[in-house]
Design goal:
The structure holds two protein chains of two kinds.
Chain A (H helix, E strand, L loop, with lengths): L4 H20 L7 H6 L2 H9 L3 H10 L2 H10 L2 E5 L18 E6 L4 H10 L3 E4 L6 H16 L4 E3 L5 H11 L4 E4 L13 H10 L1 E4 L11 H12 L2 E4 L7 H11 L3 E4 L10 H8 L3 E2 L3 H9 L20 H12 L3 H8 L3 H13 L3 E3 L5 E3 L16
Parallel strand pairs in A: 3-4, 3-7, 4-5, 5-6, 7-8, 8-9
Antiparallel strand pairs in A: 1-2, 2-6, 10-11
Chain B lengths: L1 E5 L8 E12 L2 E12 L4 E5 L4 H4 L1 H11 L8 E7 L11 H11 L16 E2 L5 E2 L4 H10 L4 E5 L3 H4 L6 E5 L2 H9 L30 H13 L3 E4 L6 H6 L1 H4 L5 H13 L13 E2 L7 H5 E2 L4 E2 L1 H4 L4 E4 L7 H6 L1 H6 L1 E6 L2 E6 L3 E6 L15 H11 L9 E4 L4 H6 L8 H18 L13 H7 L4 H14 L3 H17 L7 H9 L11
Parallel strand pairs in B: 4-5, 8-9, 10-17, 10-18, 11-14, 14-17
Antiparallel strand pairs in B: 1-2, 2-3, 3-5, 6-7, 12-13, 15-16
Helix pairs in contact in B: 2-3, 4-10, 7-17, 7-20, 17-20, 20-21
Classes of the chains: A alpha/beta, B alpha/beta.
């Protein structure tokens, strides 16, 4: 399976122009969506002006057979919009990518692409500077959807994106990473191990040719692909304005459902999601909410073991401290609320954390978890 | 001091030789230097050998003027002064007095018998007065170590040297008086040490000054009891510095030997007034400090902040702002309790056994969470600067917050005073001394992995608890040891011989591992 010549040619052209487009976008008047929808000749003229003939010459000079062989060597599959396996949902985009460059487990890639075309998928996106609450929810959603057999689309970025994918992997699901650089480029580098794992268990794709580095414009461009691939786009945590809101805007323009996870009204990274809810987004509190929206109420459940909240601990002091940890974050306040001493509260928190009922936030402070176990932080050997 | 006069030696020359002992400061300790003076007939000359630096070379002018102005004679002969051992670099003006006395003895202006076995040190003024020198306490400790009974020092330093009780210290006001002493015309009294620095209890920072922050105070008490290094995280104005300043007062007062060590470090660095330190030092270097400023070194090796904080507390406010090199340089002293500096052919050892109290903000902008505008990568960079060898030596981590709300809620009284906490700390330290008496460790915080496992045995039920926690919380090996050490201290504070499950639980809540510092 490989892309047809004209589509591949166009994709190589976009790759060639990537750096130029970056310069162009310093002028905020130019819009990505419009630009990438232009026909080849106009696109080149819009981006490089007078030097268009030279760029066209450079593209004409590329030997597509050689390029194809190079992609194959790197384990990259190309799927153009004329191919049957091209995800049909993407065709709703006015500027759908001509070619998807896909990396995955060699023998499985075709089947997984077909699955992505046939079954509804969910995009989980959010801020890179996520709170531990946001990460926990993203992980739990990813895990529930993965376990229910729904592909989870995300951007492999820091924060929510990566956590959703880790959750999906933990639930045994199929993660789909959409990158703003070439599909073989692990960006951010910190996620090398996760990138590899997603390639093994799912798909990593991009409209940019292998080896292309990310540019500022390519992130919102990538977001349109995520929104296009997914039936529902769920925003877990997002500031306002933010890239996640760009994704949800794309989803809305395409007429797809947008879901949002409610957050603390005082939190900066909840401003975007709470705003979405106000504007009519579907409130998402668990994977089941998303499944109900996709398949109809109760049509599909998260198979057990469902990540449901655990029974409260038996010990009355532990229970009091756990309740207090729901309302407060600092040990002194928790101890006062639970009516106990600081050392006793510390001991109770240490025990509760070891048993997975509470978690410590980035730099201290305590928070009650869903009780599904320690989910945060690095999940695979080799991840920093 | 010996002086030999050999008249009528072969060739008919008159030659005379004297040797005087002094102590030279090197780093924070001193070593014995023998000043040999040879006076013989010949062209008038003054040669100084034995690796003298500029200040030592210039002593010739001071010695000449001081002798003449004291009514003594500067021989118009060929004078050779050798400072032995010859391969060690000699620095500073403290050799003046020894050289002058050597010249006097070699030219037979003073008898030398009265001075046998009495090292001396001091700088000369042109009038013949003896000026104060730096590090006299180190010289006194060195003299005691070399078996001397008597030491002659400048009057201004006498009380400092007298801190070393075994030495008979005499205060020398001027070169003329020293000549009197050698002639037996003057019998100086034995110098006495000044009263120690008074400890004004009402002035000392007390825990009750800190409103609320009961959690942080508990962490502080555990840190003091076990000698554990501590990291406090919280916004500016939450009281981190205030808490840190109260840590030295929580530690048991220094023993006489420790007080002497503290005073010696400060004397060598030229700070303090020569009275015995009764308080543990508290050093708070600014975060722009260099690695050299922190651990010591330099062309003339000076003790760094960690050595000045020896037996006390080193406070590193804004830890992530410190230079990487400076913080990394702390690794060796924190592990070994001393700093080793290589310089030329010599290796200097600075004692550096201090507790580290580190503090940092939650993010580089230090604004409250809802006003924070730090990006993920900024936060990552900030926190990455935290991680590193230093964090490996930090046993306790604790978060502090602005207290206003807490104080309003009910912590109306200031909480416990320092004395009560001090007593608990003292008792806990007593248990530790008992347990660790046959080891090099003084407190739980000093125990390495081997000692930890030896002295903190776990009952089967507790071992099971720790195994479960270790798997669940993904504890590293070192992190595991740290939890055991802190748990041991918590049990010591409660006066329990045997570790209980709640001790381990509480220690787990203070651990640094698993704080998802870099989770993304």
């Amino acid at each position: 399976m490989s892309a047809c010549d004209s589509c591949l040619r166009r994709s190589l052209l976009v790759g060639l122009l990537a750096r130029r487009i970056a310069g162009l976008l310093d002028r905020p008047s130019t819009r990505v969506a419009g630009l990438l929808a232009l026909p080849e000749a106009e696109l080149v003229r819009a981006v490089v002006g007078k030097r268009a003939p030279r760029v066209m010459e450079a593209v004409d000079g590329r030997d597509l057979t050689v390029e194809r062989r190079g992609f194959a060597r790197r384990g990259v599959m190309t799927v153009c919009r004329h191919a049957e396996s091209y995800p049909s949902l993407l065709n709703d985009l006015a500027d759908a990518p001509a070619v998807l460059f896909v990396v995955g487990a060699a023998s499985e890639t075709a089947a997984r692409l077909a699955r992505l075309g046939d079954e509804p998928a969910v995009a989980i996106v959010g801020t890179r500077s996520a709170s531990s609450y946001g990460r926990e929810v993203a992980h739990s959603l990813g895990r529930g959807l993965g376990a229910a057999g729904v592909p989870v689309i995300s951007g492999l970025a820091l924060g929510i994106d990566a956590t959703a994918h880790r959750g999906c992997l933990a639930g045994g699901g199929m993660p789909v990473g959409v990158l703003a650089c070439g599909p073989d480029v692990a960006y951010p580098r910190r996620h090398r191990a996760l990138h590899r794992k997603v390639c093994e268990e799912g798909l990593v794709m991009s409209e940019l040719p292998p080896g292309t580095q990310p540019f500022r414009w390519s992130f919102p461009a990538r977001n349109r692909i995520m929104a296009g691939l997914a039936q529902i786009t769920v925003v877990v945590e997002a500031a306002d304005p933010s890239g996640s809101l760009i994704t949800s805007d794309f989803a809305r323009e395409l007429g797809r459902t947008v879901g949002a996870v409610p957050g603390h009204i005082t939190s900066r990274v909840a401003r975007g999601t709470n705003g979405l809810l106000r504007d009519g987004a579907v409130p998402v509190t668990c994977a089941e909410d998303v499944l109900d929206e996709l398949f109809g109420a109760g049509a599909r459940r998260v198979p057990p073991p469902a990540p449901a909240a655990r029974a409260a601990p038996a010990d009355p002091l532990l229970r009091r401290v756990l309740d207090a940890a729901e309302r407060h974050q600092l040990v002194a306040a928790i101890a006062a609320d639970a009516g106990t001493t600081i050392p006793a509260a510390r001991a109770a928190l240490g025990r509760l954390e070891a048993e997975g009922y509470v978690a410590r936030r980035e730099l201290g402070g305590w928070e009650r978890t869903l009780g599904t176990g320690p989910v945060l932080g690095a999940a695979y050997p080799g991840e920093p | 001091m010996r002086a030999t006069a050999a008249h009528g030696s072969p060739g008919g020359r008159v030659l005379s030789l004297a040797s005087v002992t002094t102590f030279a400061l090197e780093g924070v300790s001193s070593h014995e230097v023998t000043v040999e003076v040879d006076v013989r007939r010949g062209l008038s000359a003054f040669t100084l050998v034995g690796l003298p630096d500029r200040a030592v070379r210039e002593s010739r002018e001071r010695v000449r003027a001081a002798l003449l102005n004291s009514g003594l004679d500067f021989p118009q002969k060929r004078i050779t002064v050798n400072l032995a051992p010859a391969h060690v670099r000699k620095e500073g003006p403290s050799f003046d007095l020894a050289i002058a006395v050597g010249v006097l003895a070699a030219s037979e202006q003073v008898p030398s018998e009265g001075l046998t076995g009495s090292p001396l040190c001091g700088e000369l003024s042109l009038t013949g007065e003896v000026r104060r020198v730096r590090g006299v306490l180190a010289a006194a400790v060195g003299a005691r170590g070399c078996g001397y009974r008597r030491l002659l020092v400048p009057e201004a330093n006498a009380h400092e040297a007298a801190l070393v009780g075994e030495l008979e210290v005499h205060a020398i006001p001027s070169l003329a008086r020293l000549a009197d002493l050698l002639h037996g015309r003057w019998k100086p009294e034995r110098a006495a040490a000044r009263d120690p620095v008074p400890t004004d209890v009402s002035e000392a920072p007390d825990l009750s000054d800190v409103r609320g922050q009961e959690d942080a105070k508990r962490a502080l008490e555990i840190a003091a009891a076990g000698g554990h290094n501590l990291l406090m995280i919280g916004p500016p104005g939450a009281g981190k510095t205030m808490l840190a300043r109260r840590l030295p007062g929580l530690l048991p007062p220094p023993s006489l030997e420790e007080a002497l060590e503290i005073t010696q470090m400060h004397s060598a660095a030229g700070i303090g007034d020569g009275r015995l330190a009764t308080q543990r030092p508290f050093r708070a270097p600014h975060h722009t400090v260099s690695a050299q400023g922190l651990v010591g070194g330099g062309n003339r090796p000076m003790p760094g902040e960690i050595t000045l904080a020896h037996r006390g507390v080193l406070f590193l406010d804004e830890l992530p702002e410190f230079g990487r090199a400076a913080v990394d340089a702390l690794r060796q002293p924190l592990e070994d309790g001393h700093v080793t500096i290589m310089r030329g052919q010599r290796t200097l050892d600075f004692p550096a056994n201090a507790m580290v109290f580190a503090a940092c903000n939650r993010c580089p902008c230090a604004r409250p969470p809802d006003g924070c505008s730090c990006t993920a990568s900024e936060l990552g960079r900030y926190l990455r600067r935290l991680s590193g060898p230093l964090l490996d030596r930090i046993d306790l981590v604790c978060q502090v917050e602005q207290t206003a709300a807490l104080v309003l809620v009910g912590a109306g009284e200031g909480g416990g005073r320092s004395e009560a906490a001090c007593e608990r700390v003292n008792a806990a330290r007593g248990h530790q001394r008992n347990r660790l008496r046959e080891t090099s460790a003084l407190c739980n915080g000093d125990m390495d992995g081997r000692l930890t496992r030896l002295h903190v045995p776990l009952k089967p039920s507790l071992a099971g608890q720790m195994l479960a926690a270790r798997q669940r919380l993904d504890l590293s090996g070192r992190g595991y040891d740290r939890v055991l050490r802190v748990a041991r201290t918590i049990a010591d504070l409660a006066g329990r011989d045997e570790l209980g499950p709640s001790d381990l639980d509480e220690a787990l809540s203070y651990r640094l591992d698993g704080l998802d510092l870099l989770a993304a």
